[in-house]
Amino acid sequence: MSYTHILVAVAVTPESHQLLAKAVSIARPVQAKVSLITLASDPELYNQFAAPMMEDLRAVMHEETENFLKMLGERADYPIEQTFITYGELSQHIFGCVPQTPC
């Protein structure tokens, strides 16, 4: 059995480069697709006065995460099929990204 699509869970850290390099080394020989998923930080609302500023902070953090994933994909030297930026419980999003196929 060979892989056809590998989903790599990454974070905005230097170690993600190593994770993606390993996934690419597995995917390349069998020409499998590679996709990335990450859990974005969501700043908590501490009080009602901070709410207007939090939306701006969320947008900035989302943009930084998008930029990191783009840079990660460019350095991979392998095509990235899709990228997913999620909030909340990562396992729920993974199940949503992976199509259910019978074994």
Automatic annotation (TrEMBL):
Gene3D superfamilies: HUPs. Residues 3-90 form the UspA domain. It comes from the Bacteria. InterPro entries: Rossmann-like_a/b/a_fold (IPR014729), Universal_stress_UspA (IPR006015), UspA (IPR006016). SUPFAM superfamilies: Adenine nucleotide alpha hydrolases-like. Pfam families: Usp (PF00582). Belongs to the universal stress protein A family. This is Universal stress protein A. It comes from Salmonella enterica subsp. arizonae. The lineage of its organism: Bacteria, Pseudomonadati, Pseudomonadota, Gammaproteobacteria, Enterobacterales.
